[in-house]
Amino acid sequence: MKTLYLIFGTGFLLVFLGLSTPIVAQDIHYSQFNRSPIYINPALAGVFRGDLRFVGNYRSQWNKVPVNYQTISASIEQKFINTNQKNSLFSAGLLFNYDEAGDLELSNTNIGVVGSYTHRLAEQHFLTGGLIIGMGQRRLDASKLRVDQQYNGDIFDPTLGTGELGLNDRKFFGDFSGGLNYHFQNPDKRTRLDIGGSIFHINAPNNSLFDGAKAKLDRRFNIYGITSFKLTGDFDLGLRIIGQFQGPHQETVIGGTIRYHLEQRRSREVAVAFALSHRLGDAWVPTLLLEFHNWSFGLNYDINSSSWQSATARRGGPEFSLIYIFSKVRPPKEFEICPIF
Question: How many Cα atoms sit within 13 Å of 24 on the Cβ side?
Fold first, then answer.
Protein backbone atom coordinates (compact mmCIF):
# COMPACT_ATOMS: atom_id res chain seq x y z
CA MET A 1 0.00 0.00 0.00
CA LYS A 2 2.86 2.39 0.78
CA THR A 3 4.34 1.79 -2.68
CA LEU A 4 0.96 2.43 -4.31
CA TYR A 5 0.61 5.61 -2.26
CA LEU A 6 4.00 6.90 -3.41
CA ILE A 7 3.29 6.12 -7.08
CA PHE A 8 -0.18 7.65 -6.92
CA GLY A 9 1.00 10.85 -5.23
CA THR A 10 4.10 11.31 -7.39
CA GLY A 11 2.19 10.60 -10.60
CA PHE A 12 -0.43 13.16 -9.74
CA LEU A 13 2.24 15.82 -9.24
CA LEU A 14 4.02 15.03 -12.50
CA VAL A 15 0.84 15.33 -14.57
CA PHE A 16 0.55 19.00 -13.73
CA LEU A 17 4.12 19.85 -14.65
CA GLY A 18 2.98 19.75 -18.26
CA LEU A 19 0.33 22.42 -17.88
CA SER A 20 0.70 25.53 -19.99
CA THR A 21 2.13 28.72 -18.51
CA PRO A 22 -0.55 30.36 -16.39
CA ILE A 23 -1.70 33.86 -15.68
CA VAL A 24 -3.35 35.10 -12.51
CA ALA A 25 -6.97 34.00 -12.08
CA GLN A 26 -9.95 36.28 -11.46
CA ASP A 27 -10.60 35.12 -7.91
CA ILE A 28 -8.36 35.95 -4.98
CA HIS A 29 -5.54 33.50 -4.47
CA TYR A 30 -2.97 32.64 -1.82
CA SER A 31 0.56 31.42 -2.38
CA GLN A 32 0.16 29.33 0.79
CA PHE A 33 -2.88 27.67 -0.78
CA ASN A 34 -2.55 24.57 1.40
CA ARG A 35 -2.99 26.84 4.44
CA SER A 36 -6.32 28.22 3.24
CA PRO A 37 -7.95 24.80 2.79
CA ILE A 38 -11.66 25.63 2.50
CA TYR A 39 -10.95 28.27 -0.13
CA ILE A 40 -9.47 25.62 -2.44
CA ASN A 41 -12.08 22.95 -1.62
CA PRO A 42 -15.04 22.94 0.81
CA ALA A 43 -14.48 19.17 1.07
CA LEU A 44 -11.34 19.92 3.12
CA ALA A 45 -13.58 21.10 5.97
CA GLY A 46 -13.06 18.68 8.83
CA VAL A 47 -10.01 16.99 7.27
CA PHE A 48 -7.56 17.68 10.07
CA ARG A 49 -6.45 16.14 13.34
CA GLY A 50 -8.54 17.79 16.05
CA ASP A 51 -12.08 19.02 16.66
CA LEU A 52 -12.17 22.73 15.83
CA ARG A 53 -9.95 24.66 13.43
CA PHE A 54 -9.51 28.39 12.88
CA VAL A 55 -7.65 29.65 9.80
CA GLY A 56 -6.70 33.25 9.08
CA ASN A 57 -4.94 34.59 5.95
CA TYR A 58 -3.72 38.01 4.90
CA ARG A 59 -2.06 39.01 1.61
CA SER A 60 -0.72 42.34 0.36
CA GLN A 61 0.22 42.26 -3.31
CA TRP A 62 1.95 44.64 -5.73
CA ASN A 63 2.57 47.52 -3.33
CA LYS A 64 4.99 49.05 -5.85
CA VAL A 65 2.19 49.77 -8.35
CA PRO A 66 -0.94 51.97 -7.93
CA VAL A 67 -3.41 49.06 -8.04
CA ASN A 68 -2.14 47.09 -5.07
CA TYR A 69 -4.36 44.35 -3.62
CA GLN A 70 -5.28 43.71 0.01
CA THR A 71 -6.86 40.33 0.80
CA ILE A 72 -8.18 38.93 4.09
CA SER A 73 -9.74 35.52 4.68
CA ALA A 74 -10.88 33.63 7.76
CA SER A 75 -12.65 30.35 8.40
CA ILE A 76 -13.76 28.29 11.35
CA GLU A 77 -14.99 24.71 11.25
CA GLN A 78 -15.98 22.05 13.76
CA LYS A 79 -16.48 18.29 13.59
CA PHE A 80 -19.65 16.64 14.85
CA ILE A 81 -18.93 13.03 15.68
CA ASN A 82 -21.81 10.62 16.17
CA THR A 83 -20.72 7.71 18.35
CA ASN A 84 -23.30 5.52 16.58
CA GLN A 85 -21.69 6.15 13.18
CA LYS A 86 -18.23 4.59 13.32
CA ASN A 87 -17.36 5.19 9.67
CA SER A 88 -18.51 8.77 9.11
CA LEU A 89 -18.65 12.27 10.53
CA PHE A 90 -20.08 15.69 9.67
CA SER A 91 -18.28 19.04 9.81
CA ALA A 92 -19.66 22.55 9.54
CA GLY A 93 -18.30 26.07 9.65
CA LEU A 94 -18.15 29.61 8.30
CA LEU A 95 -15.95 31.19 5.63
CA PHE A 96 -15.19 34.90 5.08
CA ASN A 97 -13.20 36.49 2.23
CA TYR A 98 -12.52 40.16 1.49
CA ASP A 99 -10.24 41.84 -1.03
CA GLU A 100 -9.83 45.43 -2.21
CA ALA A 101 -7.86 47.08 -5.01
CA GLY A 102 -7.45 50.33 -6.93
CA ASP A 103 -8.31 54.01 -6.50
CA LEU A 104 -12.05 53.25 -6.54
CA GLU A 105 -11.56 50.77 -3.69
CA LEU A 106 -13.21 48.03 -5.72
CA SER A 107 -13.86 45.23 -3.26
CA ASN A 108 -15.32 41.74 -3.15
CA THR A 109 -16.79 40.26 0.02
CA ASN A 110 -17.94 36.66 0.43
CA ILE A 111 -19.56 35.00 3.43
CA GLY A 112 -20.50 31.34 3.34
CA VAL A 113 -21.77 28.45 5.41
CA VAL A 114 -19.64 25.34 4.92
CA GLY A 115 -20.74 21.74 5.38
CA SER A 116 -18.96 18.45 4.71
CA TYR A 117 -19.52 14.71 5.14
CA THR A 118 -16.60 12.29 5.56
CA HIS A 119 -16.94 8.54 5.01
CA ARG A 120 -14.23 6.02 5.85
CA LEU A 121 -13.71 3.77 2.82
CA ALA A 122 -11.16 1.57 4.58
CA GLU A 123 -8.96 1.76 7.65
CA GLN A 124 -6.68 4.48 6.25
CA HIS A 125 -8.77 5.86 3.39
CA PHE A 126 -11.42 8.58 3.59
CA LEU A 127 -13.66 10.36 1.09
CA THR A 128 -15.21 13.75 1.85
CA GLY A 129 -17.82 15.80 0.02
CA GLY A 130 -18.24 19.49 0.84
CA LEU A 131 -20.53 22.39 -0.02
CA ILE A 132 -20.52 26.17 0.48
CA ILE A 133 -23.77 28.14 0.45
CA GLY A 134 -22.83 31.80 0.43
CA MET A 135 -23.55 35.41 -0.39
CA GLY A 136 -21.24 37.78 -2.22
CA GLN A 137 -21.00 41.56 -2.57
CA ARG A 138 -19.08 43.55 -5.16
CA ARG A 139 -18.62 47.22 -4.25
CA LEU A 140 -16.80 50.40 -5.28
CA ASP A 141 -16.62 54.03 -4.18
CA ALA A 142 -18.15 55.89 -7.16
CA SER A 143 -17.35 59.28 -5.55
CA LYS A 144 -13.68 58.69 -6.39
CA LEU A 145 -14.37 58.15 -10.09
CA ARG A 146 -12.45 60.55 -12.35
CA VAL A 147 -13.23 60.77 -16.10
CA ASP A 148 -12.51 63.11 -19.03
CA GLN A 149 -15.95 64.77 -18.81
CA GLN A 150 -14.98 66.25 -15.43
CA TYR A 151 -12.27 68.42 -16.94
CA ASN A 152 -13.71 71.76 -18.04
CA GLY A 153 -10.83 72.58 -20.36
CA ASP A 154 -8.62 74.14 -17.70
CA ILE A 155 -8.97 72.22 -14.45
CA PHE A 156 -10.67 69.21 -12.94
CA ASP A 157 -14.22 70.04 -11.78
CA PRO A 158 -15.70 67.37 -9.44
CA THR A 159 -19.18 68.95 -9.75
CA LEU A 160 -19.43 67.81 -13.37
CA GLY A 161 -21.14 64.49 -14.05
CA THR A 162 -19.15 61.39 -14.94
CA GLY A 163 -21.56 60.27 -17.67
CA GLU A 164 -21.64 56.77 -16.17
CA LEU A 165 -25.39 56.07 -16.18
CA GLY A 166 -26.88 53.19 -14.23
CA LEU A 167 -23.71 52.59 -12.20
CA ASN A 168 -24.41 51.18 -8.73
CA ASP A 169 -21.97 51.27 -5.86
CA ARG A 170 -22.68 47.63 -4.85
CA LYS A 171 -24.10 44.35 -6.08
CA PHE A 172 -25.27 41.37 -3.99
CA PHE A 173 -25.45 37.83 -5.35
CA GLY A 174 -25.79 34.23 -4.21
CA ASP A 175 -22.73 32.02 -4.54
CA PHE A 176 -22.49 28.21 -4.34
CA SER A 177 -19.46 25.91 -4.42
CA GLY A 178 -18.73 22.22 -3.92
CA GLY A 179 -16.03 19.57 -4.12
CA LEU A 180 -14.66 16.12 -3.28
CA ASN A 181 -11.48 15.13 -1.43
CA TYR A 182 -9.72 11.80 -0.97
CA HIS A 183 -7.59 11.49 2.17
CA PHE A 184 -5.02 8.83 3.05
CA GLN A 185 -3.57 8.77 6.56
CA ASN A 186 -0.82 6.49 7.80
CA PRO A 187 -1.26 5.43 11.44
CA ASP A 188 1.90 7.36 12.37
CA LYS A 189 -0.20 10.49 11.61
CA ARG A 190 2.67 12.21 9.80
CA THR A 191 2.41 10.48 6.41
CA ARG A 192 -0.71 11.57 4.57
CA LEU A 193 -2.13 12.48 1.18
CA ASP A 194 -5.00 14.65 -0.02
CA ILE A 195 -6.17 14.69 -3.63
CA GLY A 196 -9.30 16.48 -4.71
CA GLY A 197 -11.21 18.77 -7.00
CA SER A 198 -13.75 21.54 -6.55
CA ILE A 199 -15.98 23.94 -8.46
CA PHE A 200 -16.54 27.46 -7.14
CA HIS A 201 -19.36 29.78 -8.31
CA ILE A 202 -21.37 26.83 -9.58
CA ASN A 203 -24.31 29.15 -10.34
CA ALA A 204 -22.07 31.61 -12.29
CA PRO A 205 -23.73 34.64 -10.59
CA ASN A 206 -24.15 38.00 -12.28
CA ASN A 207 -21.99 40.55 -10.44
CA SER A 208 -22.27 43.54 -12.80
CA LEU A 209 -22.53 46.96 -11.13
CA PHE A 210 -24.51 48.40 -14.07
CA ASP A 211 -28.30 48.24 -14.28
CA GLY A 212 -29.50 45.72 -16.86
CA ALA A 213 -25.98 44.50 -17.67
CA LYS A 214 -24.70 40.97 -17.26
CA ALA A 215 -21.20 40.07 -16.15
CA LYS A 216 -21.21 36.50 -14.89
CA LEU A 217 -18.58 35.36 -12.46
CA ASP A 218 -16.88 32.47 -14.23
CA ARG A 219 -16.78 29.12 -12.49
CA ARG A 220 -13.42 28.32 -10.93
CA PHE A 221 -12.20 24.72 -11.21
CA ASN A 222 -9.52 23.53 -8.77
CA ILE A 223 -7.58 20.29 -8.77
CA TYR A 224 -4.74 19.65 -6.33
CA GLY A 225 -2.50 17.21 -4.50
CA ILE A 226 -1.03 17.76 -1.03
CA THR A 227 1.19 15.14 0.57
CA SER A 228 3.60 14.79 3.48
CA PHE A 229 6.05 11.92 4.12
CA LYS A 230 7.71 11.00 7.39
CA LEU A 231 11.36 10.72 6.35
CA THR A 232 12.99 10.11 9.74
CA GLY A 233 12.04 10.53 13.37
CA ASP A 234 12.67 14.28 13.12
CA PHE A 235 12.18 15.21 9.45
CA ASP A 236 9.18 15.32 7.09
CA LEU A 237 9.04 16.08 3.37
CA GLY A 238 5.97 17.79 1.97
CA LEU A 239 4.92 18.19 -1.69
CA ARG A 240 1.97 20.10 -3.08
CA ILE A 241 0.53 21.30 -6.37
CA ILE A 242 -2.63 23.06 -7.49
CA GLY A 243 -4.14 24.01 -10.82
CA GLN A 244 -6.86 26.68 -10.84
CA PHE A 245 -8.87 27.42 -13.99
CA GLN A 246 -11.37 30.26 -14.30
CA GLY A 247 -12.67 31.35 -17.69
CA PRO A 248 -9.67 32.21 -19.90
CA HIS A 249 -7.36 32.36 -16.88
CA GLN A 250 -5.33 29.68 -15.17
CA GLU A 251 -2.78 29.35 -12.40
CA THR A 252 -0.44 26.52 -11.42
CA VAL A 253 1.58 26.41 -8.20
CA ILE A 254 4.03 23.67 -7.24
CA GLY A 255 6.11 23.48 -4.08
CA GLY A 256 7.86 21.47 -1.41
CA THR A 257 8.50 21.70 2.32
CA ILE A 258 11.15 20.39 4.71
CA ARG A 259 9.92 20.20 8.32
CA TYR A 260 12.13 19.59 11.37
CA HIS A 261 10.49 18.50 14.63
CA LEU A 262 12.35 20.09 17.54
CA GLU A 263 10.08 18.58 20.19
CA GLN A 264 7.54 15.77 19.85
CA ARG A 265 6.27 15.28 23.39
CA ARG A 266 2.48 15.41 23.65
CA SER A 267 1.13 18.99 24.05
CA ARG A 268 4.69 20.37 23.73
CA GLU A 269 5.23 19.80 20.03
CA VAL A 270 7.52 22.31 18.30
CA ALA A 271 8.52 22.28 14.63
CA VAL A 272 10.03 24.64 12.07
CA ALA A 273 9.76 24.32 8.31
CA PHE A 274 11.02 25.97 5.15
CA ALA A 275 8.99 25.81 1.96
CA LEU A 276 9.66 26.93 -1.59
CA SER A 277 6.94 27.22 -4.23
CA HIS A 278 6.79 28.42 -7.81
CA ARG A 279 3.73 29.95 -9.42
CA LEU A 280 4.53 29.05 -13.02
CA GLY A 281 5.27 32.04 -15.19
CA ASP A 282 4.82 34.48 -12.31
CA ALA A 283 6.74 34.20 -9.02
CA TRP A 284 8.96 32.26 -6.62
CA VAL A 285 7.62 31.96 -3.08
CA PRO A 286 9.95 31.21 -0.13
CA THR A 287 7.98 30.48 3.07
CA LEU A 288 8.89 30.08 6.74
CA LEU A 289 6.63 28.06 9.05
CA LEU A 290 6.64 27.92 12.86
CA GLU A 291 4.50 25.37 14.72
CA PHE A 292 3.89 25.10 18.45
CA HIS A 293 1.42 22.52 19.76
CA ASN A 294 -1.95 23.62 18.28
CA TRP A 295 -0.63 26.86 16.75
CA SER A 296 0.90 27.25 13.30
CA PHE A 297 2.20 30.48 11.72
CA GLY A 298 3.36 30.96 8.13
CA LEU A 299 5.08 33.89 6.41
CA ASN A 300 6.08 34.18 2.77
CA TYR A 301 7.13 36.86 0.32
CA ASP A 302 6.47 36.53 -3.42
CA ILE A 303 9.43 37.33 -5.66
CA ASN A 304 8.00 38.27 -9.04
CA SER A 305 9.72 36.62 -12.01
CA SER A 306 7.34 37.49 -14.88
CA SER A 307 7.51 40.40 -17.32
CA TRP A 308 5.50 42.35 -14.74
CA GLN A 309 8.72 42.65 -12.66
CA SER A 310 9.55 45.85 -14.58
CA ALA A 311 6.69 47.51 -12.68
CA THR A 312 6.91 45.60 -9.40
CA ALA A 313 10.71 45.58 -8.99
CA ARG A 314 10.25 41.82 -8.30
CA ARG A 315 8.19 42.67 -5.19
CA GLY A 316 5.07 40.55 -5.28
CA GLY A 317 4.18 41.12 -1.64
CA PRO A 318 3.99 39.45 1.79
CA GLU A 319 1.46 36.89 2.94
CA PHE A 320 0.65 35.66 6.46
CA SER A 321 -1.27 32.61 7.65
CA LEU A 322 -2.35 31.53 11.13
CA ILE A 323 -3.93 28.20 12.06
CA TYR A 324 -5.19 27.11 15.46
CA ILE A 325 -6.61 23.65 16.16
CA PHE A 326 -8.49 22.75 19.32
CA SER A 327 -8.68 19.11 20.37
CA LYS A 328 -10.96 17.65 23.02
CA VAL A 329 -9.97 14.75 25.25
CA ARG A 330 -12.27 11.82 24.48
CA PRO A 331 -13.01 8.51 26.18
CA PRO A 332 -11.12 5.64 24.47
CA LYS A 333 -14.26 4.17 22.87
CA GLU A 334 -15.18 7.47 21.21
CA PHE A 335 -11.62 8.16 20.04
CA GLU A 336 -11.55 4.87 18.15
CA ILE A 337 -14.38 6.07 15.90
CA CYS A 338 -12.10 8.42 13.97
CA PRO A 339 -8.52 7.22 14.46
CA ILE A 340 -6.86 9.57 11.97
CA PHE A 341 -8.46 12.79 13.12
Answer: 15
Q: What is the C-alpha separation between 152 and 215, in angstroms, rounded?
A: 33
Task: Count the Cβ atoms, other than its own, within 10 Å of residue 337.
Answer: 18
What is the architecture, at CATH level 2, of domain 2-335? Beta Barrel (2.40)
CA distance linking residue 28 with residue 40, whole number of Å: 11
Helix, strand or coil, per DSSP, at residue 160: coil
pTM, entire model: 0.82
Rounded to whole angstroms, the Cα distance separating 190 from 235 reads 10
Whether the pLDDT of residue 11 is over 60: the answer is no
* Ramachandran assignment for 43, one of left (phi > 0), alpha (psi -120 to 50 degrees), beta (any other): alpha
Pairing of strands 315-326, 220-230: unpaired
What's the gap between Cα 17 and its chain centre?
Answer: 20
Please state the domain extents for the chain. 2-335
